[in-house]
Amino acid sequence: MIRFAVALGVLLAVVHVPVRAQETGALAPHPDDTRWWLSGQMNFIFQWHGEFPSPYQGPNSLMATSEQAISRLLTLFTGLVVAPRTEVIFDVESAGGHGISDALGLAGFTNLDVVRNPSLGGAPYIARLFVHHTIALGSETKKADRGPLSLATEVPVRRIDIRAGKFGTVDWFDQNGPGSDSHLQFMNWTADNNGGYDYAADTRGYTVGVEAEYQDRNWALRFGEMAMPKVANGIDLDWDIAKARAENLELELRQGLIPGRSGVVRLLGYVNHANMGSYAEAIAAWKAGIDPVPTIELHREAGRVKQGVGVSVEQSVLDDVRVFGRYGWNEGHHESFAYTEANSSVEVGGDVRGGGWTRPNDKIGAVFIVNGLSEDHREYLADGGLGFLLGDGRLTYGTERIFEAYYNARLYRGVFAAFDVQRIVNPGYNEDRGPVLVPSLRLHLEF
Predict the structure, then answer these.
(1) Which element (helix H / strand E) includes 4?
(2) What would the mean pLDDT of 222-242 be, rounded to a whole number?
(3) Closest Cα to residue 107, out of 289, 368, 373?
(4) What Rg value do the Cα atoms of the chain yield, rounded?
(5) Alpha helices in 324-386 (DSSP H)
(6) What is the pTM of this model?
(7) Exposed (0-12), middle (13-18) or buried (19+): which is 236, by Cβ within 10 Å?
(8) Which of 42, 83, 92, 207 is 20 to 30 A away from residue 126, measured at CA?
């Protein structure tokens, strides 16, 4: 770990020269005048933690002994404009390596790139395959940033966007400028996404569905109908849509809270239907002597419903300074199913660009997160039950509190390196364990 830190320090010292903001592109150029798109990214994250206090641990605990892990995430982005205002996006991905403790023991896990089922291996898979069509609702247009998920350089101000196929729910929902990118920003699951948003996804983070949104000058409204996994944290999606699906609705208001400064407020609501278990039923069966330990998988029922809400805010404060925050809550009677084991989550943070120290493409960020559990969920874990991420065998409940900070440096066009540190109090909501400090190094390449 010391050698990694020294190497990063040397790199930062060598490249500490002023960088023009317009030179932030990828290693290879991406012209705006073609019908096609081809790009790629590589993200490598090294994490480590030392020993921390732990009088006991269970099958799904964060290991209390020192450990380290390296993950890699490789993505090939392609796209083709097949007709005016109609495009097809096709992305292939490979996720390899692993996370500390195989991504177990934390609701706010330390590395968003890690696939929660390491047995899947690193073979390439289809990440996205969807059609995107835009319906213009007026003649007025505006410039748009061309990128891997949208190829247009100009779009109608008033329009309807429709996307259908395979994608990530959070490609469109719960976006947040300072806190949605594990490649250039924070690494923690509950920093880059709302921890209380149990959004539809397989274990790799993707689903199949339809998303439609109305876009106007200062606001947008989007709705999505997505497929849920067959089981919690499962790789296979459930096609019995009468009993397994997710409705997502989000209102986006592009209005700053500070006069003269840009800002966005997003209000989210969602309803999941799935073959979910009941914490209360699992506890009752254990207390009655029916089950040797509380086991939520034995008390699932198709078509159960779980609701949740979320609020996301981002605000420019100064030219190089932004702040952001999120709040999320979901009904905690039924099992956490698709994202992480949190029934509530609050985060507050911000970032600063390096213009003040002649490094305009560097960035510093910091965030504080508090994750919580419902009474049913915490009792289930305290009685020895296992979730798909958590299970110390016992539990002295306390909110999981996380502080994360990073420095992300642009080394060269399309090449970035970052140092990150996370301090986690009450890992897995357990006051008997921790705290734990997790330093990280990241190398990110864009082609």
Answers:
(1) helix 2-14
(2) 96
(3) 373
(4) 22
(5) 375-382
(6) 0.91
(7) exposed
(8) 83
Confidence of residue 27 (pLDDT cuts 50, 70, 90): confident
User: For residues 1 and 439, is the Cβ–Cβ distance under 8 A?
Assistant: yes
Residue with tokens 């149990």: 198
pLDDT at 199 over 80: yes
Phi then psi for 102, rounded to 5 degrees?
Answer: 55, 35
CA atoms within 13 A on the CB side of 276: 27
In 3D space, the residue among 436, 430, 404, 428 whose CA is nearest the CA of residue 45 turns out to be 404
Tokens encoding 197: 């948003």
Tokens 């259908």 correspond to: 164
The residue among 226, 134, 218 whose CA lies nearest residue 171 is: 226
- pLDDT for 385: 97
* CB of 369 closer than 8 Å to CB of 401: yes
Under a CB-based contact definition with an 8 Å cutoff, are residues 400 and 436 in contact? no
Report how far residue 438's alpha carbon sits from residue 427's, in angstroms, rounded to the nearest whole number. 12
Other beta carbons less than 10 A from residue 72's beta carbon: 15
Q: How far apart are CA 337 and CA 328, in angstroms?
A: 15
Indicate the DSSP class of residue 396.
-
More confident residue, 31 or 373: 373
Per DSSP, the three-state class of 292 is: coil
Q: Which of 195, 285, 267, 274 is nearest to 236 (CA)?
A: 274
Q: Are 161 and 308 in contact (CB under 8 A)?
A: no
- Alpha-carbon gap, residue 109 to 256, rounded angstroms: 31
Separation CA 54–CA 304 (nearest Å):
36
* Longest Cα–Cα distance in the chain: 69
Contact 116/445 with Cβ under 8 angstroms? no
Contacts of residue 62, defined as CB under 8 A and 6 or more positions apart, other chains included, come to 100, 101, 104, 105, 106, 427, 428, 433, 436
Domains of the chain: 2-30+46-63+102-113+154-446 (2.40.160)
Q: What is the dihedral of CA 377, 326, 340, 292, to 10 degrees?
A: -10
For 146, list phi and psi in degrees, rounded to 5: -75, 140
Mean pLDDT of 71-93: 97
Name which of 59-68, 111-120, 269-278 the model is least confident about. Answer: 111-120
